[in-house]
Every structure is written in structure tokens, then in C-alpha cells.
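Input set for joint prediction.
Command: fold jointly, output C-alpha cells.
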Amino acid sequence: MATDLYDLTVPVFLRGLRNLSAILHKGAAYAAEKGIDPLTLTQARLIADMAPLTAQIQYASDTAKGAMIRIGGLDPVPMADTEQSFADLQERIEKTIAFLESVPRERIDGRDDAVVTLKTPRGDFTFTSRSHVLGFAMPNFYFHVTTAYALLRQAGVPLGKMDYLGGI
Amino acid sequence: MATDLYDLTVPVFLRGLRNLSAILHKGAAYAAEKGIDPLTLTQARLIADMAPLTAQIQYASDTAKGAMIRIGGLDPVPMADTEQSFADLQERIEKTIAFLESVPRERIDGRDDAVVTLKTPRGDFTFTSRSHVLGFAMPNFYFHVTTAYALLRQAGVPLGKMDYLGGI
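C-alpha cells >
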């Protein structure tokens, strides 16, 4: 009856990334329709010292794939963080989705209480897999998807909550 | 080993609301320090046709308490949505936290596959408790907490990701 760790992660990240892809498609269509340089949207920031839209997609991607790699003890899947255009960002999302779809359920389920370490410039954070998902990966993933939505919504792209929630 | 539904919900919402409270305290302190009318912050919007900061807190509160009420078959806990000031918003968060702390684990665990219905102006959405949490309540809750963060961050309040993630 309780929720297996795979069900708590892979399908959740997949839905979020598919919704993010649809949101970015609406951003690109809006730029084309209004004659806006698409790079002004992909480089948009909420404030000068906050990361731009491109980085929000990179961080969402990294959060999802990093969590599964750490939990499953899987090989790293490096991505270069060089995306600039909407097409680049779609490719990043597609690669992240393809990786998530390749994660074997048997490498994830039952790992709930296994220790994982998140290495950051601010030091190492130690979690169980469950607390890593609930206390870091999930909120961090949604932070970056929501911030991407916010940047495009603020720029005038016609978006609504259902674009974010998707597949409800 | 898998995750019980209570652990997937109540402590997650509690941490998010406590972090949201700390973020709002920083917003109030910033307004005081800079001589800004606090209501210009609590009424801030990302764009004219999007809900203001006050509503972001109300929606985060409603999402958390609504999910637990639906899943647990608990009595409604109406809140009037009349908050204007930072103090009002803190009180709303405190009341929501007090309710969540009162939710009995035995009314939640094991309800994973029970059907719940979300009534909205756009029609009714039917879920299992698990899909309601993973596909609606969790992303919607983080959407509103992140948007609250974004509004204050954009207004110049000194906030960083750790204010949002908190208790990592």
C-alpha cells in the first residue's frame, strides 16, 4: 500500500519535465508570434543576481538525474550546460527524459533507507534516499520548474496553472 | 521500506510552511529596514493578471490542508482568505501548521489507493490519495511556495535557495 521509491521519483520527474517542455514550446511560439528575440526569453531572470531561464532547466534536469544516479548507484550522465536556445533546452529535456526512462526499477525500490551523499560547494549533505527525495530533490526540482514558468509567465507568455500541473 | 502516506505528506508540508514563514519574516524585516510599505510586498505580483503574494500563501495553505482533509476524511477547516499584512500571513501559516500537526497518522496511512475527489470551478478531478499527493498537492504546494519566494526575491529581499529548502 505504501509508495515504492521508484513511483515516488521517476514518474514524478517525467511528468514535470514533459510539462516543462510544453511550457517552453509555448515560450518559443510566443517569441515567434510577437517577433521577440527568443534569446531574450531564454536569458530572462527574475532579478540580475538570479540564474536565467536556461539554468532553471539545467538545474531541474540535474536534480532529477542526480537523485536517480545517487539512489541507484548508477553511472554519471554528464551534460555540458551549454544550452542557449529553446531548441537546445528541448534537447536537454529529451536527454534527461531518456535517461530517466532507462532507470531500472530494481535499482531504486528498497533503497529508501540507504545513505546517499550530495556533494555541493557548500559541503556534503548526507541523507537517506527517502529524505534526499522528499527534502531535497522534489522541492528543488519543483523550484526550478516553477521559476521557469514564472519567467515566461512574467514575459507575457500565455500560461496557466494547468500547463504546470499537466497530466492531472 | 516503502514510504507511508503520512510521511509523504504531513512532514513535507510542515517543513515547507516553516520555510515559507521564515521567508516572510525576511520580507517583513526588509520592508522595515528599507522603509518600504509592507503592503507593497504582500500585494506584489509577477504580472498584473497573476495572484499576489497573499494569495500564494493562502493557496499553499489550502493545498496542504485540503489534501489531508480529503485523504483522511477529516472535517473542513475553513479559513477566510482575508490576510493582508505579513502578521496576518504568519497567523495563517501558524493555523495551517497547527491543523497539520493534529492530523492523526492512522487516518492517513493505508489510504494510498482510496479515491479522493478535488472539486474545482473547472470540474471535479478524481484521484487515488497517492496520485492526488504526487500529481497535484505536492507540485501545487511547491508552486505557491516558490512563487512567494520569487516575489520577495525579485523585490530585493536577501533570500537564497537554502531559505526555500530549509532543514535539509
